[in-house]
Specification:
Helix content: 25-40%
Radius of gyration: 17 Å
Structural class: alpha/beta
Number of helices: 8
CATH superfamily: Aldolase class I
CATH topology: TIM Barrel
Mean pLDDT: 95
CATH class: Alpha Beta
Strand content: 15-25%
Low-confidence stretches: none
Number of strands: 10
CATH architecture: Alpha-Beta Barrel
Order of helices and strands: EEHHEHEHEHHEEHEEHE
Length: 232
């Protein structure tokens, strides 16, 4: 895995990405998933020129009186060993840290949680946690998903699970399997746009975005099970 920390994008201010905090978003390059509907293909495939890490840190140091948090997104941040030092730097600057992750590296997630580097985690759950399809990742990677979900549910760190609503990966059966791994965390059904995605030829032949009625039905099912489920 990468020893550096390649940053491919920086959103200087957001009120939406970190619940309750004015934040910046750092987008990290590289991913071990190849989701056909991924809307950040340039990040995944390292097509963007990387930002100088020192410049990003200098910017965040200057914005401490304005920003409260930093979201580390991607790509997949846990692929890079530099994530630990970057998180340590953010905490030294007084920032709350939110991690967006696909949950494929539970050992890294555990280390970050134990180091108390994370204040919030958002984990994407893209299919049945027990059977991630080859169209998304290799089998030995996908089998880590239940471990990461369990880690988060057992931790005291605020977290949420996000389900990109794309067929054939999400249907009633797969959604039921996802819910079996969630006890109390908020669950968000994500509307997916299919423009400028990683594998445009996957649509509409093999896949499609779920329509609003289908998503409403999934939300109803989750709420009937007592889960806090919303549509985004």
């Amino acid at each position: 895995m990468g020893s550096g920390f390649p940053i491919g994008g920086l959103q200087k201010t957001t009120l939406l990405d970190f619940p309750g905090k004015v934040s910046a978003v750092v987008f990290v390059q590289g991913c071990n998933f190849l989701c056909p509907y991924c809307h950040n293909p340039d990040l995944v495939l390292y097509r963007q020129k990387a930002f100088a890490l020192t410049e990003v840190i200098a910017f965040l140091a200057q914005r401490r009186k304005i920003l409260e948090g930093v979201v580390i997104s991607g790509g997949e941040p846990t692929l890079h060993d530099g994530l630990f030092s970057f998180c340590a730097t953010l905490k030294s600057l007084g920032y709350a840290v939110k991690l967006d992750t696909n949950g494929s590296r539970p050992a890294v997630l555990r280390q970050l949680l134990e180091a108390e580097f994370l204040d919030y985690v958002a984990m994407d759950v893209k299919a049945n946690p027990e059977q991630y399809p080859a169209a998304i990742c290799l089998p030995d990677v996908g089998e880590n998903i239940p471990r990461s979900m369990a880690l988060l549910e057992e931790s005291r760190v605020m977290h949420e699970f996000r389900v990109p609503c794309v067929a054939p990966f999400i249907d009633a059966g797969n959604f039921a399997a996802i819910m079996e791994h969630i006890r109390h965390a908020p669950l968000f059904l994500q509307t997916v746009r299919l423009e400028d995605v990683l594998q445009a030829d996957f649509f509409p032949g093999q896949g499609r975005a779920l329509d609003k009625n289908t998503m409403e039905n999934l939300r109803y099912i989750a709420q009937q099970k007592g889960l806090n489920c919303q549509i985004r």
